[in-house]
Specification:
Elements: E1 10-14, E2 24-27, E3 30-34, E4 43-47, E5 49-55, E6 67-71, E7 76-78, E8 85-90, E9 100-106
Antiparallel strand pairs: 1-4, 2-3, 3-4, 5-9, 6-7, 6-8, 8-9
Pfam families: Phage_cement_2 (PF09956)
Protein name: DUF2190 family protein
Organism: Azospirillum doebereinerae
Length: 109
């Protein structure tokens, strides 16, 4: 097939803000997790599918399989859908309080 480009698991994105290695970034409707630190406007390789640990809203309890969204203002994962972007689901339960959660990224927009 001549039109195949790549599987899309890891893609090059332009960082819309300074991002740390392992930090989430939202470019339009495309969410990824930075594989290295990048300054605002720099190219960064980002994972769009797979299982990652992300900072989460501390005061939330997650159940396995609950939908997880990206809060681009707080730069954290949350179960609150309002004004946030769906990024996947919780792979394992997370307690309230807890600073991180394990997310299976959905790789879709």
């Amino acid at each position: 097939m001549k039109n195949y480009v790549q599987d899309g698991t890891t893609v090059s994105l332009t960082a819309p803000y300074d991002v740390a290695s392992g930090g989430g970034l939202l470019v339009g409707a495309l969410f990824g997790v930075a594989m290295s630190a990048a300054a605002n406007g720099a190219a960064v390789q980002a994972v769009t599918r797979g299982v990652v640990t992300l900072p989460k809203t501390n005061a939330q309890a997650w159940t396995q399989g609950v939908k997880v969204y990206w809060d681009n203002t707080a730069k954290e994962a949350t179960t609150a859908s309002s004004s946030n972007t769906l990024i996947g689901c919780a792979l394992v339960a997370a307690a309230n309080p807890s600073a991180t959660g394990t997310v299976r990224l959905n790789g879709t927009v």
